[in-house]
Write a structure and sequence with these properties.
The protein is an alpha/beta fold and 277 residues long. It has two domains: 215 residues, P-loop containing nucleotide triphosphate hydrolases (Rossmann fold, 3-Layer(aba) Sandwich), CATH 3.40.50.300; 55 residues, no CATH class. The strands form three sheets. A six-stranded mixed β-sheet has the order 5-6-7-3-8-9, sandwiched between helices. It is globular and about 70 Å long. The two termini are 32 Å apart. 36% of the residues are buried. The structure holds adenosine-5'-triphosphate (ATP). The site of adenosine-5'-triphosphate has 12 residues, from β2 and α1. Keywords: Antibiotic resistance, ATP-binding, Nucleotide-binding, Transport. InterPro entries: AAA+_ATPase (IPR003593), ABC_transporter-like_ATP-bd (IPR003439), ABC_transporter_ATP-binding (IPR050763), P-loop_NTPase (IPR027417). GO terms for molecular function: ATP binding; ATP hydrolysis activity.
Length: 277
């Protein structure tokens, strides 16, 4: 559904993209992760047809992004809605532009209003909504025409847990129906929930691609024991149970808490940074 090969994009001295390649199949959710400035949003902007690459090739459903607008739904990092216009009017406008009419348009609006819990503020102007409500409205605009490719750039930033869950549920459902999804986030548990494969961007390129099991297995997490006298001991380990037994055996002091942390995105970036110096 999406094929990007060796994309480059330069802003002055900054190489925002430096040979960025990524392929996403129909029905696949790809979690695009990477440090700030890695090039994720620039990639999303190119695929959504907002900006053009300096070189390289990108196709959506076999076409140039500018010719594939109706196949693409974008929820950009920064809210791009009209402040005086209500959420419902946005959905009618964007659904209508994509060719949805009357009953079909109404059906899609009703479904999204329900799934993303928009009913309470659907008839209010966007400019009067909270940040989280605007994010939900933005996501609904991306989804209204059932695009074959969804580009979600940090769609849950600032969202409360219920909103986050509602959005993840809709995205999973769309992927089951065959939608290809690119989902950028700084939050690994969301990608586990989406059962996404990962693409790790660094300095304008994708430097690792695979399932989270392939990329995270073998990376150390952390076991931390806090004793009641407030002393804290932590160990970086790939074997948390063994490490915990080791920490506690022979220890007579009462334990206040035990915390086992799985490998995080930071652990992944660190391991890849070592591999890519
Ligand atoms: N319009 C622009 N003009 C100048 N520089 C830009 C522009 N857009 C992006 N850049 C630069 O390109 C690089 C990549 O930025 P981009 O926004 O794609 O990163 P990102 O991975 O999305 O980061 P974040 O996680 O912070 O959203 C950064 O160094 C950024 O400063």
């Amino acid at each position: 559904m999406l094929e990007a090969t060796e994309l480059t994009k330069q802003y002055g001295d900054v190489h925002a993209l430096a040979g960025f390649s990524l392929t996403v199949e129909a029905g696949e959710i790809v979690g695009l992760v990477g440090h700030n400035g890695a090039g994720k949003s620039t990639f999303v902007e190119i695929v959504s047809g907002l900006i053009r690459p300096d070189s390289g090739r990108v196709t959506v459903a076999g076409k140039d992004p500018a010719q594939a607008r109706s196949a693409i739904g974008t929820s950009p990092q920064h809210i791009a809605l009209y402040r005086p216009v209500t959420v419902r009017e946005h959905l009618k406008l964007y659904g209508g532009l994509a060719g949805l009419r009357r009953a079909a348009l109404q059906r899609e609006i009703d479904e999204l209003v329900g799934a993303l819990r928009l009913s309470e503020f659907c008839d209010r102007p966007v400019g009067l909504l909270s940040g989280g409500q605007q994010r939900r409205a933005q996501a609904a605009v991306a989804l209204i025409h059932r695009p074959g490719l969804l580009l979600m750039d940090e769609p849950t930033a600032g969202a409360d847990p219920e909103t986050r869950q509602a959005l993840l549920d809709v995205i999973k459902q769309r992927a089951r129906e065959g939608t290809a999804v690119v989902y950028t986030t700084h939050y690994l548990p969301e990608l586990a929930e989406l059962e996404a494969t990962l693409a790790v961007a660094r300095a304008g390129r994708v430097i690792a691609r695979g399932t989270s099991a392939e990329l995270l297995d073998g990376l150390p997490g952390e076991v931390r024991v806090t004793f009641q006298d407030e002393e804290e001991v932590s160990i970086s380990t790939t074997e948390p149970s063994t490490a915990l037994v080791g920490l506690l055996s022979g220890n007579e002091r009462p334990v206040a808490s035990v915390d086992v942390r799985k490998p995080s995105l930071d652990d992944l970036y660190r391991s890849l940074a070592v591999a890519h110096v």
